[in-house]
Amino acid sequence: MKTLVWVEHDNKHVKDATLATVTAASKLGEVHLLVAGSGAAGVADEAAKIAGVGKVHLADDAAFEHALAENVAPLIVTLMESHDAILFPSTTTGKNIAPRVAALLDVMQISDILSVESPDTFTRPIYAGNAIATVQTSDKKLVITVRGTAFEKAATSGGSGTVEAVGGSGDAGLSTFAGAEIAESTRPELTAAKVIVSGGRALQNSENFHALIEPLADKLGAAVGASRAAVDAGYVPNDYQVGQTGKIVAPEVYIAIGISGAIQHLAGMKDSKTIIAINKDEDAPIFQVADIGLVGDLFKIVPELTEKL
């Protein structure tokens, strides 16, 4: 079975989400990668070194610079003539492109897989992760998104893949890139961080969030996350959100401060290796998944914790 993996990148480097997707693809058979971008030859060379990769297809065109689904999907459909499956990381970009590819191929998309049971059978979470479904497909071509926290990351070295240039149909004229407002931070990227400090609605306002969460994160060299309630209340931007409708994370340490632990949030972080919860409500659901729980006033506990580190 020949599989194709969509490489998530910024036209400079391969993003970590790709590595777990390569591991998932390797369980299906021979692994090829697709690097579609503009001035992305360096990305293709980097991707070719990933362990287990046989070939890297490089589509270098200005139409692919921003990974617009309307431009990328026809390219993938063409490559699927010689591949049996296409796998995407379950990222914003992956989730944007995959449905369009599935529609063009006239197949069902299998979303957020947690394991590969056989070439046509997979497991995926349902009911916000409270149950795991086993899904079997009869489609001849497979379109799959992969939950990165469920698979080990492939090694970034040791591979000896070859790079092959491929052509696409260019700009489909169906969409244009208007711009992006990307928050810049010296902290680790949320989905790649080993330690995450997240705040919830109990912080009351944006000023408290920044005054309490960020100093602790800086002491720990951690990324900063937030619950949906905190994001909806305007404490922090959307890209901080952890949860079913935000980012799925599985760091070594996850510190949840003032987060009650709604199902939506737990679905995004319960695979973390060690979960530490600080909340004044001893009956908060977050304590059911926490390895270490501290019941008390976060406005007293967090400054004291930060000071002692």
Automatic annotation (TrEMBL):
Which cofactor(s) are needed, names only?
Answer: FAD
How many cofactor units bind, and how? Binds 1 FAD per dimer.
Q: Which Gene3D superfamilies match?
A: HUPs (3.40.50.620), TPP-binding domain (3.40.50.1220)
Q: Which Pfam families match?
A: ETF, ETF_alpha
Source species, domain of life: Bacteria
User: Which GO biological process annotations does it have?
Assistant: fatty acid beta-oxidation using acyl-CoA dehydrogenase
Q: Which UniProt keywords apply?
A: Electron transport, FAD, Flavoprotein, Transport
Q: Which SMART domains match?
A: ETF
Which parts of the sequence bind FAD? 201, 227-228, 241-245, 258-265, 279
The protein's matches in InterPro entries, at most eight in alphabetical order, are given as: DHS-like_NAD/FAD-binding_dom (IPR029035), ETF_a/b_N (IPR014730), ETF_a/FixB (IPR001308), ETF_alpha_N (IPR033947), ETF_asu_C (IPR014731), Rossmann-like_a/b/a_fold (IPR014729)
Q: Which GO terms describe its molecular function?
A: electron transfer activity; flavin adenine dinucleotide binding
In this chain the Electron transfer flavoprotein alpha/beta-subunit N-terminal domain maps to 3-181
Which proteins does it associate with, and in what oligomeric form? Heterodimer of an alpha and a beta subunit.
Q: What does this protein do?
A: The electron transfer flavoprotein serves as a specific electron acceptor for other dehydrogenases. It transfers the electrons to the main respiratory chain via ETF-ubiquinone oxidoreductase (ETF dehydrogenase).
**Similarity comment text for this entry:** Belongs to the ETF alpha-subunit/FixB family.
Q: What is this protein called?
A: Electron transfer flavoprotein subunit alpha
